[in-house]
Amino acid sequence: MKADALTDVAGVRVGHATRTGDGWLTGTTVVLAPEGGAVAAVDVRGGGPGTKETDALDPRNVVQRVDAVTLTGGSAFGLDAASGVMAWLEERGRGVRVGPEPTHVVPVVPAACVFDLRRGGDFRARPDAALGREAIEAAAATDPGAPVPQGCVGAGTGAVVGRLKGGVGSASTVLPSGVTVAALVVANAVGSAVDLETGVLYGEYFGGRPRLPDPEVHRAARRRLAEAAERNAPPPMNTTLAVVATDADLTRAQAQKVAGTAHDGIARAVRPVHLLNDGDTVFTLATGTRPLDAKDPLALNEVLAAGADLVTRAIVRAVRAAAPVDGPGGAWPSYGELYGGS
């Protein structure tokens, strides 16, 4: 049975490390590639990104494959979590070989962060190397194809989308060619995921004809959101992060194209996007077990379209799975709390 999540790409695993209470509201998520790594790429479109090792993914550069991607809270401080992921990989001889011994490796662990500082109340409560190690250990301990916990977990623990609580979401599909494409997002955006005129999630306009919330429910929701906004500090920096994974055999240039078009999925589900105080970043991982049709120069198109669609679906799931937070760092209602099953 498929999990309808990133782990439907064979060999890809996801682990979360979550910290809440006593001033904490943050965490780290690690996407662990199969043994031997995966072709990787990145596309950064936000004006305020916090990233690590993204230049290594440029197709012009030497690194061919990576073993893990780290998504983390804590803004730029939280990028320390990637050091814990690197240490775990090094101990297992996974990384770029740089010496004669099998242990002479340098793991390349691309990472990106979201801004969630002080949302739990303590500005200094943020992910570090120990939390990164905890997240990759959690990923390694999962069974193949295991469901991915969603909502306020891992890097989505302190996530906020506009005035609503955000979180982690994931989705997958199998294309007519047999290729699997999947996405995982950390939805933490300056822009809104909700059409304030109707109460419908923007991303659900692309899945058919969404049912409109009752007008009185929507009016009550808008009042609650306005009250919460008065209490909370304005969000100075926010970001939506995504990993699009596939079992297609992609070149590094093709993987970069997938990362670029996947940003369309963010633009459908959040408005506005790619602002100067967003750090919107999309990674691609391609495990390469299914070749594309070599006779069709446009065979990549179905992967490109699916990646964007799945990012949209994953953002919707993240917002729907999120739970409300009311603590010393602020109050953020959840979509489910405000609109129920609408």
From TrEMBL:
What Pfam families does its record include? Peptidase_S58 (PF03576)
InterPro entries attached to this UniProt entry: ArgJ-like_dom_sf, Peptidase_S58_DmpA
Which residues span the membrane?
A: none
Matches recorded under PANTHER family:
BLR5678 PROTEIN, D-AMINOPEPTIDASE
Query: What family does this chain come from, according to its entry?
Result: Belongs to the peptidase S58 family.
Q: What is this protein called?
A: P1 family peptidase
